[in-house]
Amino acid sequence: VFWLFFIRPQAKKQKQQKKFIEEVQKGDKVVTIAGIHGKVNKVNEDSTLQLEVSPGSYIVIEKSSVSMEMTQQVNKVTTPKA
To answer: What is the pTM of this model?
Structure first.
């Protein structure tokens, strides 16, 4: 019972996070775990991203620091409803 309610949902969430990070591509708007909002400018081969935080300002972050939940919330708010 413990596994069904605690372990399984957590493992499923980790799988989704990993898939989300692997599918990040240039042009995606993301939010880091630290709360930094930006647009992916470049996906590097060494598991880092170049993030444009303001026009002409770039930072390099680890892919693992991108938050799936916060990014989905931000994209949900900015996406116009049909």
So the answer is: 0.71
Task: Output the CA–CA distances (angstroms, integers) from residue 45 to 22, 26, 63, 75, 79, in the order listed.
Answer: 12, 13, 11, 25, 30
**For 1-36, what is each residue's pLDDT tens digit?**
677 777 888 888 889 889 988 888 999 999 999 989
The amino acid occupying position 7 is: I
Between the alpha carbon of residue 66 and those of residues 25, 57, 81, the distances in Å are 12, 18, 25
What is d(CA 71, CA 67) in angstroms, rounded to the nearest whole number?
A: 6
**DSSP 8-state secondary structure symbol assigned to residue 29:** E
Distance, in Å, from the CA atom of 16 to the CA atom of 38, rounded to the nearest integer, reads: 21
User: Which residues are within 8 A (CB) of 40 and not within 5 positions of it... i.e. 6 or more apart?
Assistant: 24, 25, 26, 27, 28, 29, 30, 49, 50, 51, 52
